């Protein structure tokens, strides 16, 4: 297995060139080309082509949104289980008060710092997942994200 670059806040986002550049780029280019053709000369064929191009771009965007939503749900479940074993008794009842965004931010916290970070997130009402990720000192990598 190839050695992975240590993950941290700056490099944890995943960029897939085949999707982000090639697939989405081609769809976007096709969409703008059909709009140009539609403006140049209105016809039923150019109208249908522009509608299909718009639908394809929409599908590409929604596929990404839906996958991210499912991933967030899985992260929420994993983190609820993990945190219920890691946090002290006084925090266990408060785990269910965390939002999905908070769970997503907390997933990178090491086991040793998770309890105190959960306490801080709840007590200070930190809702932004990026803000929570920036508070992580000992990064627990996630190489399986989508």
Overall description:
By secondary structure, the chain is mainly alpha-helical. It has one domain (16-135). The chain has helices at 17-40, 44-86, 89-92, 100-106, 111-124, 129-135. The protein is elongated. The relative contact order is 0.13. The mean pLDDT is 91.
Compact description:
The protein is mostly helical and 146 residues long.
Sketch the topology as an H/E string, one letter per element.
Answer: HHHHHH
Please indicate the percent range of residues in DSSP E strands (runs of 2 or more): under 5%
- Work out the helicity level: 55-70%
Structural class: mainly alpha
Rg (C-alpha, Å):
21 Å
List low-pLDDT spans.
Answer: none
Q: Major sheet: size, sense and barrel closure?
A: none
Shape field? elongated
Structurally, the number of domains stands at 1
Instruction: Please work out how many helical segments DSSP would assign.
Output: 6
State the main characteristics:
146 residues; mainly alpha; 68% helix; elongated
Provide the fold topology.
Elements: H1 17-40, H2 44-86, H3 89-92, H4 100-106, H5 111-124, H6 129-135
